[in-house]
Every structure is written in C-alpha cells, then in structure tokens.
Amino acid sequence: EDKVVQSPLSLVVHEGDTVTLNCSYEVTNFRSLLWYKQEKKAPTFLFMLTSSGIEKKSGRLSSILDKKELFSILNITATQTGDSAVYLCAAERQGGSEKLVFGKGTKLTVNP
Amino acid sequence: DVKVTQSSRYLVKRTGEKVFLECVQDMDHENMFWYRQDPGLGLRLIYFSYDVKMKEKGDIPEGYSVSREKKERFSLILESASTNQTSMYLCASSPPGSYGYTFGSGTRLTVV
C-alpha cells in the first residue's frame, strides 16, 4: 500500500528560527514529490521535486529529494508568523491518473 | 488567474439528507478529484474523474457518489448524510500528465 509519512506532526517555534520538515514515502512507480502550504483554506503549491539531490528554492523556503532513501525535506529559514500553516507532502505515481498520495501534514506554528 | 471554485464555504445539513457539493474549474483540466480532510487523518481521496462521464473510486468512496456531466464541473453527492461525514471537503483539478493539483477553497460540511 502506498504511503507518505510526515514528521513531526506539529511544531512550535519562535520567529527567526530555522525549521526542517520531513517526508518519507513508499509509492509504487514514484514520479514526483510535491509540497503544499495550507493556511485556512486551499492548499497552495510550493515545490515539485523529481530528481534526486537537486535543491529547489523559493525565498526562505527550500526543498530537496533523496530518491535512494525515499524522503524529502522542506527547510524554512528565518521563520515568520506568516509561515504558520499546515505543510503537506504528496507523492505522485507514474503512468496513472495523476493521483496524489498525501501525508497527514505538519502543523507549524511560529510565535512572535 | 486559474480557479477551482467550490460552491459553498460552509454547509450544515441534517442526518439523512441528500447533499450536493459542487466544484467548477475554469482551466479546461481533464482530471478532477474530491478529497476529505480530517484532523489526524490528512487528505483522503474519495473519487476522481479523468474525463467527462468517467469516474473512479478513491480510497474511501463508501457513502458517496459523483457526477461529471461537463468537463468543468465535478459534483460530490452524499446520498444520505451521516454525522461521520462531517468534514472539510476539497476539490482539485489537474491537466493530464500534470505534476500537481490546483485546489478549491474547500467546503466545511457539518452533519447534525
């Protein structure tokens, strides 16, 4: 059975801290790994990773994929209160109907 | 700006009622999905559709049905609502071969 496991499930930090969110996956015919940020409503896309070892960056956020060890991390540096959200990791299979398998999410709270 | 629109943000229904959740996308996407999101359980796939009039069961289809009469619209139907269907429902769409979804803002359904 395909599964995606995120850790930790929740995290509380202070502004300015750096955080690392983890995502491991076991998915048949893996194609890509995606990260989403969910505040009060719709998840919004952050990164898509398909190749091992290549870091994707967007401002203070970065992510990397290890296809040998089957995991990905999402780093957020110099956290701000606006980073408070649930971060979702999802794995996509090849050759199917583009269904995503989601982890349960990591709830990040950044306190001032 | 591309959009996935869910007709209701909040909905309260009585046990036994037939409930329709509507989702419309303006991106001409082939694939559309319905998920429910519950604390501690993450996003779970209910049904998806990869073409008009086509549908496939996801991981938790029991108690639900769907309708896709037009490409842009994907409806989720609760045939006889029950309290255990109280949840956040998220619709998403993607083009074929896509690496990610565009989500709607969600419908928070409460069944009393």
General description of the model:
The complex is a heterodimer of chains A (112) and B (112). In chain A, the strands form two sheets. In chain A, strands 2, 4, 5, 9, 10 and 11 form a six-stranded mixed sheet that branches. Chain A has a five-stranded antiparallel sheet with strand order 1-3-8-7-6, with no helix packed on it. Chain A contains no helices and eleven strands. The mean pLDDT of chain A is 92. Chain A has 112 residues and is an all-beta fold. Chain A has strands at 3-7, 10-14, 19-26, 30-38, 44-49, 56-58, 61-66, 71-76, 85-93, 100-102, 106-111. The radius of gyration of chain B is 13 Å and the shape is globular. Chain B has 112 residues and is an all-beta fold. Chain B has strands at residues 4-6, 10-13, 19-25, 31-38, 42-49, 56-57, 64-70, 73-78, 87-94, 102-103, 107-111. In chain B, strand 7 (64-70) and strand 8 (73-78) form a beta hairpin. In chain B, strands 2, 4, 5, 6, 9, 10 and 11 form a seven-stranded mixed sheet that branches. Chain B has a four-stranded antiparallel sheet with strand order 1-3-8-7, with no helix packed on it. Classes of the chains: A mainly beta (112), B mainly beta (112). The interface between A and B is medium-sized, with 21 and 27 residues.
SSE blueprint:
The complex is a heterodimer of chains A (112) and B (112).
Chain A: E1 3-7, E2 10-14, E3 19-26, E4 30-38, E5 44-49, E6 56-58, E7 61-66, E8 71-76, E9 85-93, E10 100-102, E11 106-111
Parallel strand pairs in A: 2-11
Antiparallel strand pairs in A: 1-3, 3-8, 4-5, 4-9, 6-7, 7-8, 9-10, 9-11
Chain B: E1 4-6, E2 10-13, E3 19-25, E4 31-38, E5 42-49, E6 56-57, E7 64-70, E8 73-78, E9 87-94, E10 102-103, E11 107-111
Parallel strand pairs in B: 2-11
Antiparallel strand pairs in B: 1-3, 3-8, 4-5, 4-9, 5-6, 7-8, 9-10, 9-11
